[in-house]
Amino acid sequence: MNTVALVGIDIGKRSFHLHAQDRVGHEVWHRQVTRPQLLRQMAQLAPCRVVMEACAGAHWLARVLTDYGHDVQLIAAKLVRPFVSNNKNDFADAEALCEAARRPNMRYVGIKNIEQQTLSIRHRMREALIRERTAITNQIHGFLLEFGVPLPAGAATIRRLEAHLEDEVKLPATVLLLIRRLRERYLGLCDEIAEVDQELRDDVAQNDAAQRLLTVPGIGVITASLLAAEAGDTSSYRCSRDFAASIGLVPRRYSTGGKPRLLGISKRGDRHLRTARAVMVSVWSVPHGQRIDACG
């Protein structure tokens, strides 16, 4: 029986599709399993190389399979798509993972640890709370404008909303009640965001990589914790330019006929991470070819 050297796993919520190959790339077997069956089968399988798409649940599963002794690697979904040879289905995706992993120049995603995933969740929560707070602010401005009450721009206006409402005798009592209810929700969201910010400060104080990032000029607590959570294992980057390219901070290139043509910033990668504009200066200030030691 051929020895399994490479296994591609197409991850699902309840079912997983596996494609196994030997050392020369021949298919050994393929099968569909449930989540409990997957864990049992991979625990019994001899240590081999395992590749998966970097999607929901991939980092947790990668840590589990690593504990089983397997060499686990994650590939971005957009890099696997060109290797789907036939019509798309789950088994074809698993086979495409194996084909992509056999390319010598394939780029892989660093596996996040539990601390990084926890930091990432905090940032996603913070981002959602800020979006909700912004939506409520726009609602308050819009509702009052419907009754001819234009509010000055700025977050401080919502906090001093009572002072504005006291002078507006033309507003119906029901509208005043609804606006005050929105203001209470706004203030509650401000308190929740402040709590998350404090939790991020506590996390950064205990994170060695984030502490080193704080020493970089222009990087604060939010940016440091976000970089520590999303950058992953920086050993996968050859130089600072590779890291800058991974978050879309390099020009998009369209060259042909030997004529180089650089366009605008590509804006690929993580949009949330790219909002830390101060990092742009810090990344480009690192000489080309030098590793990013601040990320660990």
Describe what this molecule looks like in 3D.
This protein has 296 residues and is α/β, with parallel strands linked by helices. The chain folds into three domains: 6-101, ATPase, nucleotide binding domain (Nucleotidyltransferase, domain 5, 2-Layer Sandwich); 115-205; 209-295, no CATH class. It has 13 helices and seven strands. The strands form two sheets. The chain has a five-stranded mixed beta sheet, with helices on both faces. A two-stranded antiparallel ribbon has the order 6-7. α5 (114-146) runs antiparallel to α8, α5 packs across α10 (221-230) and α9 crosses α10. The longest helix has 33 residues, at 114-146. The model is unreliable at 278-296 (pLDDT under 50).
Please work out how many helical segments DSSP would assign: 13
Number of strands: 7
Helix and strand composition category: alpha/beta
CATH homologous superfamily heading of the largest domain: ATPase, nucleotide binding domain
Record the strand order, biggest sheet: 3-2-1-4-5
- What's the CATH architecture name of the largest domain? 2-Layer Sandwich
Q: What are the secondary-structure elements, in order, as H or E?
A: EEEHEHEHHHHHHHHHEEHH
Biggest sheet character: 5 strands, mixed
CATH topology of the largest domain: Nucleotidyltransferase, domain 5
Termini gap = 43 Å
Q: Kindly state the percentage of residues in helix.
A: 40-55%
| Count of separate structural domains | 3
Radius of gyration: 25 Å
Integer average pLDDT? 82
**Percent of sequence in beta strands:** 5-15%
Shape: elongated
Supply the CATH class of the largest domain. Alpha Beta
Q: List low-pLDDT spans.
A: 278-296
